Amino acid sequence: MTEFKVTPWNVEGDIDYNKLIEQFGTQPIDDKLIDRVKSLTGEVHPLLRRKIFFSHRDFDWILSKYEKGEEFALYTGRGPSGHTHLGHILPWIFTKYLQDAFGCELWFQLTDDEKFVLSPQLSIEDTIKYSYENALDIIALGFDPKKTRIFSDISYAKTMYKHALQVAKKVTFSTAKAVFGFDNSTNIGLIFFTSMQSVPAFLPSIMHKKKIPVLIPSAIDQDPHFRITRDVAEKMGYYKPALIQSMFLPSLEGPNSKMSASKQNSAIFTVDTPKQARKKIMNAFTGGCSTLEEQRVKGGDPTVCTIYQYLYILFEHDDEKLNEIKRRCMSGEEMCGNCKKYLAEKVVTFLKAHQERREAAKDRLDEFMISD
Amino acid sequence: MTEFKVTPWNVEGDIDYNKLIEQFGTQPIDDKLIDRVKSLTGEVHPLLRRKIFFSHRDFDWILSKYEKGEEFALYTGRGPSGHTHLGHILPWIFTKYLQDAFGCELWFQLTDDEKFVLSPQLSIEDTIKYSYENALDIIALGFDPKKTRIFSDISYAKTMYKHALQVAKKVTFSTAKAVFGFDNSTNIGLIFFTSMQSVPAFLPSIMHKKKIPVLIPSAIDQDPHFRITRDVAEKMGYYKPALIQSMFLPSLEGPNSKMSASKQNSAIFTVDTPKQARKKIMNAFTGGCSTLEEQRVKGGDPTVCTIYQYLYILFEHDDEKLNEIKRRCMSGEEMCGNCKKYLAEKVVTFLKAHQERREAAKDRLDEFMISD
Fold first, then answer.
1. Are residues A84 and A194 in the same domain?
2. Is B60 within the bounds of a domain?
3. Inter-chain touch A185–B166, beta carbons under 8 Å
């Protein structure tokens, strides 16, 4: 059995998502929940239909609130440690769908404070710069400017710090140590930081001066922070935020590799040129055999193929087309090169459109960003 | 030997100040230093002459800088956990003298964040309210509005938090634990807080965009915070702040009692009426004997007398008069009642004038307070 480790600051190994649900104590997304979303909104995003969002806490409670006519707000975030890659965008795409489907206000946190205290190599100017760069990607995804508030912890610190203190007073080092695995060498900025990550779960209630349910779509690695948020919420007079949690987009370099800015070929970044993106995809890890002859006989293995995973998770929403790709791969009818080209065209199409909207976003920051 | 304990959050027992200098690793204020101040400013405040300010770190370096024509800034603070008492005012009086004598800019921090995370019984509204109340006392002491900036951590959080992160990144839990005695039950707000207390030592340099020496007058219990500040200062490109540190004004209830807002008779508060102040003084612990007859024969003991200590530390600047009071006490010529009345008149005179200026300060907050 492969070892794996998932914390907000480190994801390692080949992740067994069912086991993660057990470890973290969350609930699996089941067909009943998906049907309930369908009956409420008439459509279900492929990220939910395919259970890329596979885990939750109290998502059913959020739906009950909505069914009773109560509005809920969304909260998600980004740690601005570098440029945005497709793995970061995955939960944002789903968040945008939720905003549209349920008409939600969205609070989008950029944790420039966290990434600064976490990363020896990042200066505060770096994380502030990446807050700006990442905000362009968020805006480019098409969130509703009337209902979306993007802020960085540092530029919204006057509001954030005051409320973070209220969280911090209720969280002991012992709890933080147990939840995050801190030790004596952890710096006191990182120890405090989880208080800042709790605050946006309460901001909708604070700003509207009434208790508002909040749903947090995010990758599963953020769950530890929100366990703390949920622990303190009711003591502070708010609802516990509900969570809906996604798997990770795999590294293009295959299993046991991580997508990261320090490994440029592991991920496709939103600022990559079409040429760069194509090259990364053409070099990606697949489930193909070592020779074309062997593959024609034995077929490929889509279950370990990053190309197939990118199509499944983000780029081929049509189930029939996807099944046909899988069938042709396994039967040896299709070679990896063609599959790579198929994905590359989809990725390049996305990148070109995204980069246009990203460029336009430079003049639209005021519509979305708040500070104090 | 009496046990004692001095931390920023707890002062207990009968303090041996010489031993504290050893424990903390600070330097004693000696006559040479006092003479040097005299030769620079022509006057020496009684709090320095009498070595109530008894300890320092690099105060000699500050004087050398000044002798070379370099300006230095002052930084002191207050934890707004309640109303101001005379013990709080002691270092502020000395700070005002330093501002006048050396022409210094002063940064005055109100740690409403610290007191909130520290005290189970205080709400954030409480500590914000006391920030305001305490600021009135600070202004009433006559600081130069052109050279004085008073701020609370919460209302100046946007500036403070950003710089506190830079400190926090350089301080491990291990260091904080060793310096403050934190344990697993300490909340993560208090663990982080020392970063906020470091920032004003760097604000003069940050605001004027050049390295400015800073002197911190405070009671000795704040030394642990500034050990951390001094540890990180040079790594951050600033001078280590220098410190000049005072003893505590004793409790009116005698040795082994603490001045605190929860024991109203232990201290004279700036908002006490003349009647309340007189009553507290008339009930204070003295060095007198149990009967008048016995005292006439044996004499009193000024070394344990709170009345004598109040005169020595704050209210009788005339050495000759003070010596005469001591002589008459020890010889049995004077009874405690008269001494108490003598102090009471001085305290009431101070309080009346202070309260007038404190009232006027309500219209002067804008001259002193900064926020972001």
1. yes
2. yes
3. no
- What is the arithmetic mean of pLDDT over A343-352? 98
**Position B259 in a domain:** no
pLDDT of A1 over the 50 cut:
no
* Residue A257 belongs to a domain: no
* Averaged pLDDT, A240-253: 96
Average pLDDT (A321-329) is: 96
Chain B residue with minimal CA distance to A196?
B189
Rounded Cα–Cα distance for residues B325 and A90 (Å): 80
The answer to whether residues A221 and A329 belong to one domain is no
Residues of chain B with pLDDT under 50: 1
Residues A201, A66, single domain; the answer is yes
- Measured at the CA of A241, the angle between CA A238 and CA A245, to 5 degrees, comes to 175
**Same domain flag for B27 and B64:** yes
Q: Which residues of A make CB contacts under 8 Å with B?
A: 113, 116-117, 124, 154-155, 157-158, 160-162, 164-166, 168-174, 176-177, 182-192, 194-195, 372
Query: Chain B: nearest CA to A285, how far in angstroms?
Result: 38
B-chain residues near A188 (CB < 8 A): 168, 171-173, 176, 191-192, 194-195
Domain boundary among A187, A213, A248: A248
Contacts 24+ apart (CB under 8 A), B162-166: B162/A124, B162/A154, B162/A157, B163/B199, B163/B202, B163/B203, B163/B206, B164/A189, B164/B192, B164/B195, B164/B196, B164/B198, B164/B199, B165/A113, B165/A116, B165/A117, B165/A124, B165/A154, B165/A189, B165/B195, B166/A124, B166/B236
Residue A3, pLDDT score: 74
Domain of B32, in residue numbers: 4-248
Question: How large is the ipTM?
Answer: 0.95
For residue A255, pLDDT beyond 80: no
Inter-residue contact A252 to A326 (CB < 8 Å): no
Domain presence at residue A94? yes
CATH number of the structural domain spanning residue A207: 3.40.50.620
Residue A275: pLDDT band by 50, 70, 90 thresholds? very high
Confidence of residue A2 (pLDDT cuts 50, 70, 90): low
pLDDT of B260 reads 73
- Percent of chain A clearing pLDDT 70 (strictly above): 99
Q: What is the mean pLDDT of chain A?
A: 95
Task: Please give the pLDDT value at position A11.
Answer: 80
Q: What is the pTM of this model?
A: 0.95
- Into how many domains does chain A fold? 2
Residues A151 and A192 in one domain: yes
Domain end call among B248, B278, B308: B248
Beta bridge partners of residue A11, listed in sequence order? A6
Tell me which residue has tokens 């279950």: A303
Residue with the two structure tokens 């970044």: A269
Confidence grade of residue A13 (pLDDT, cut at 50, 70, 90): confident
Task: Spell B46-58 as b/e; 16+ CB within 10 A means b.
Answer: bbbbbbbbbbbbb
Q: Are residues A86 and A220 in the same domain?
A: yes
Which domain CATH number covers A340? 1.10.240.10
